[in-house]
Amino acid sequence: MTQKLNARIILIGLVAILLLAGSLWAQAARERSEIDAKYKWNLEDMYPTVDSWNAAYTALDAAVPRLAAYKGRLGESAATLLACLALNDSLSSLNGRLYVYANLKLDTDKRIGESQELADRIQALSSRLGAAGAFIDPELLTLDTARIREFMAASPGLQEYRFYIENLLRTKAHRLSDKEEEILAQATPVTGSFINTFQIIDNGDITFGSIKDETGKDIQLTKGRYSTIMQNPDRRLRRDAFYEFN
């Protein structure tokens, strides 16, 4: 009796899921602006407005030369080395926050020019920041290993970077020069432009037609619906979705 009851409950649940899926598929694909806010990520938790993002961007841009000013000075003292590494961490963290905000904003709708502009700007600034700090690893590797370990022993703050420094020393024989590292960092915008262009076209410009669901209703095919439909037991529906999508 219990098994029959459980089977009935499972069957009812499956029917409810299929009915819900059918009602969702029957709807035309909606614009993001038409979807309730509770179903969308809230970028205001990162930056309340684009203006506040711009202010943080300006602050980071102005701070990049401060990092470059440590070039040639890492062997001065433990305090200088710690100050450089801490600044690099701080700027990298700010850069990451700016980058994530801009790219999540772009991912919501790649057709919006302002969002693309933010993503392009932080991509370029990320490259400048990477180039400004490209000297750190190569310069550390030019220092005597014993001196670096003396710095770590003398400065409690450098203990936070012990794993990074020890791992860097371990790979010493396989590292590039500071000039070569800088060239690689500056190449980021160029090498990343192709995938950015593809994503704009693929996610923003390409649309798909409609297909018939199991009941004969028209459903507009989207990338999100495609993955769900391809798991549907109806072979004809999967076939139609496949050929429409591809």
TrEMBL record:
<dbReference type="Pfam" id="PF08439">
    <property type="entry name" value="Peptidase_M3_N"/>
</dbReference>
<dbReference type="InterPro" id="IPR013647">
    <property type="entry name" value="OligopepF_N_dom"/>
</dbReference>
<feature type="signal peptide">
    <location>
        <begin position="1"/>
        <end position="28"/>
    </location>
</feature>
<protein>
    <recommendedName>
        <fullName>Oligopeptidase F N-terminal domain-containing protein</fullName>
    </recommendedName>
</protein>
<keyword id="KW-0732">Signal</keyword>
<feature type="domain" description="Oligopeptidase F N-terminal">
    <location>
        <begin position="139"/>
        <end position="208"/>
    </location>
</feature>
